Amino acid sequence: MKKEKIVNGENAEIKNKKEKGDGSSVGFLVLKIVIAALVLLVVFYFGFTCEVRESNAAIILRFGAPRAEITEAGLYLKLPWPFETVVTYDNRVQYLESNNHETTTMDKKNIILQSYATWEIKDPLTYHNTVGAKGTVDSYIRDQIKNATNSVMGTYTLSDLISSQNEDIKTDEIQQKIFELVKSNCEANYGISVIDVSILRISYPDANLQAIFANISAERQGVIDKILADAEAQVSDITTSADAEAEKIKGEGITKAAEIRAKAEKEVASIYANAQSANIELYKFLKELDTIVNSVNEGTVLVVDADSYPFNILLEYGNKIEGGSDEKVVEDLTYIIATLRSEGKTKEADDLVAAVNAILVAYSKGEG
Q1: pLDDT tens digits, residue range 201-258?
Q2: Which residues of 163-201 are buried (b: 16+ CB within 10 A; e: fewer)?
Q3: Quick one: DSSP state of residue 344?
Q4: Local structure of residue 122 (DSSP, 8 states)
Q5: Domain-by-domain residue ranges, the chain?
Q6: Domain topology for 94-204
Q7: Under a CB-based contact definition with an 8 Å cutoff, are residues 161 and 172 in contact?
Q8: Phi, psi of 152 (to 5 degrees)
Q9: 3-state helix, strand, coil in the chain (%, to 5)
Q10: What does pTM read for this prediction?
Q11: Which regions of 136-206 does DSSP assign to beta strands (E)?
């Protein structure tokens, strides 16, 4: 009985060991499968795929020859090395400054230009075939800028770059032409899209400074001459306009004076006509007095016979007054003065009164 128990006990232990060994074998097998899968996945990832990032472009090469061009980011299939390899290029916008370049203008003046360019890869396959991994793209672009600058500046003069008049400076036009030449050549030859080419700085050799100063001086003198010519033209226009205005005013004054003179003469004639129609002695006296006044001036000294014509007028009129006709004279004067005032000719009436008073004063002093 004891032997059977022992045997049975040994059998149970062996059975348990077998069961435990089977479980560990399965776990180890699963582990090996998982490791093998991971290894295969890693091998497949690195051997049969390539990753292209957002800022890159790629060319898949089969035995060194381009098989595919990739411009979009992502994961792509390929054969493992040495069957296929992948070359990637940075397709972000890049900045480049050219070297200082001395060139000649159309008027044979030397200038030194430095430009800058911004560019990016547009055609990765053309870029790979022409530039590739040589790292010489900067020199290619600089050469294109140099050639374009020589070509464009040969059609412009020095004054197109430096001038005292902003409207004469053609820097923007020159930059645009250089940009167009560089863009077309780089895109066609290297698969590069040039975004911008601009002049960074302009300098001049010492030998050209004197010519530049002379050019600026000539431009300044031209501006001065133009200003003086414009000023002289304006002075001429103003003088002509002023002369015309003066002639117009003078003509209007002469016309106005003639009108006033005609009106005054008409009024005087009217006064004389009124006096004549009244058959008054004063009219004859005034007319004859006009004859005396018109025959002399301020510098005239007369020695005449008081009884001869027309100087006898004063004596005759005085005799009329002495002969008792003074009432008639006063009546006539009163009539004339009243007529003048009634017609609104107060000044003429006052002048007449003053003249008669002067005659009477002279007569009373014995000067008549």
Answers
A1: 888 776 666 666 666 666 666 667 778 788 888 888 888 888 888 888 888 878 887 7
A2: beeeeeebeeebbebbbebbbebbbeebbbbbeebebee
A3: T
A4: S
A5: 19-89, 94-204, 278-364
A6: Tetrahydropterin Synthase; Chain A (3.30.479)
A7: no
A8: -75, -45
A9: 65, 15, 20
A10: 0.49
A11: 192-203
